[in-house]
Write a structure and sequence with these properties.
This protein is of the alpha/beta class. It is built from 14 helices and 14 strands. The strands form two sheets. It has an eight-stranded mixed sheet, with helices on both faces. A six-stranded parallel sheet has the order 11-10-9-12-13-14, sandwiched between helices. Strand 7, helix 5 and strand 8 form a beta-alpha-beta unit. The radius of gyration is 21 Å and the shape is globular.
């Protein structure tokens, strides 16, 4: 049996938080995967102390992923900053990255038959430097909408070049697909998904899941949020909920990204800011939540995001209150409470907390199962098998 050799240039470290990249790579069949954690900028430790730990990581040997022995993880060397502002810097960075990746590929016997699988527009300048027979671009965000040291026109141009060169383009949202289809007609939408087998335990094992120590005695209803605390989250709505419902609990599980200041939320005694929880332990926390929150501020980034948390919420069967963005939530309007403004958001939080509708619970579970990572990856594989990008056996 001829195995596929996949070189994944990721935008997320393989550990500790599983995102689309890990969920796709871990479920690819008949494949050997070299997974490269994204590089750290040389100035990143000045803003984020945790980044300092990654500066020397690329010198360490590759690590096999326990439970997914077909994946070996490496860290890329650190890079010069401002690569999303100045193309010449990105070219210089990618030249250095290519030398490192080629060395690792050779070590593992990967050559010109490899499939290069990219997640960042910056990869446009490494493609020609790596041996490969096929290129996949999996677009998960409106990259030029991020804030920070970027020039949107530079990022958009890099993305167009990467997408044009790709043998197959995937996008997590219809807005992203429509943009990329202008330069590559292969672009198809395959949204994010959920580890249904894990999150459905909230219903299938609800009587067996122990209450976490740090959730005992909390006033109900508990309005919960799980995910990265990034800039595009609508913290004003969270604050409004805590202020309007002082007898309830707002429980946020996540890690603030650099630049996100949550000081104003710490003023509220009924807001709990909890650190990240390993995925296998999340069902016990979600089981104690009465309502799950999916709250995004309106904007270019939020409109086309495909939040993993939303599909994970569906897989729990729990009531979900969401903002209008991302637009994907409209596909589930029959079982999700979608608010147009702050007043409606507060009212829908009350309705969701009082919900007692087994039919809605069952339909959310059915949606969660249909959106499982197993189903998403089967869609991806079918597309790539038909094109001969991946070999089925």
């Amino acid at each position: 049996m001829m195995k596929n050799h996949v070189v994944c240039l990721s935008t997320t470290n393989y550990h500790p938080l599983p995102t689309r990249k890990q969920n796709v790579m871990s479920r690819l069949r008949n494949s050997e995967v070299l997974y490269f954690d994204p590089p750290v900028s040389l100035i990143a430790p000045l803003k984020d102390k945790k980044a300092a730990a990654y500066l020397g990581k690329y010198r360490q040997p590759g690590a096999r992923v326990e439970g997914h022995e077909h994946i070996t993880v490496y860290a890329l060397p650190p890079v010069l900053p401002f690569f999303n502002k100045f193309r010449w810097i990105n070219r210089l960075n990618q030249w250095r990255q290519a030398r490192f990746v080629r060395k690792i590929m050779k070590k593992h016997g990967f050559g010109g038959e490899s499939v290069l699988w990219c997640y960042s527009p910056t990869a446009c300048d490494i493609v020609s430097r790596l041996p490969h027979r096929a290129l996949v671009y999996d677009c998960v965000d409106r990259h030029s909408a991020y804030k920070g040291h970027i020039t949107p026109a530079v990022v958009d141009r890099m993305e167009r070049e990467l997408a044009t060169a790709a043998d197959q383009v995937f996008a997590t949202a219809s807005g992203l697909q429509e943009t990329l289809a202008q330069v590559n007609p292969t672009a198809v939408t395959i949204p994010n998904g959920a580890a249904y087998e894990i999150f459905s335990r909230v219903q299938t094992e609800k009587d067996a899941l122990p209450c976490p120590e740090d959730m005992r005695g909390l006033p109900h209803p508990v309005f919960g949020f799980v995910g990265m605390l990034q800039e595009c989250i609508d913290y004003a709505l969270i604050e409004a909920l805590a202020k309007a419902r002082p007898d309830a609990t707002v429980f946020l599980i996540g890690r603030p990204l650099p630049g996100v200041d949550l000081t104003h939320l710490r003023r509220y005694p009924n807001i709990v800011l909890h650190e990240l929880v390993p995925q296998p332990a999340l069902p016990a926390y979600l089981a104690q939540m009465d309502v799950c929150l999916n709250v995004f501020r309106a904007g270019a980034l939020s409109k086309d995001v495909s939040p993993l948390k939303f599909y994970e919420y569906l897989a729990t069967g729990k009531p979900v209150v969401s903002t209008r963005e991302p637009v994907q939530v409209e596909d589930f309007a029959d079982v999700v409470y979608i608010a147009q403004d702050e007043a409606e958001f507060l009212a829908l939080c009350d309705r969701a907390a009082a919900e007692n509708d087994p039919d809605k619970t069952a339909r959310r579970l059915a949606y969660g199962k249909a959106c499982s990572w197993g189903e998403r990856v089967r869609q991806i594989e079918r597309t790539l098998y038909e094109k001969g990008v991946l070999h089925e056996s």
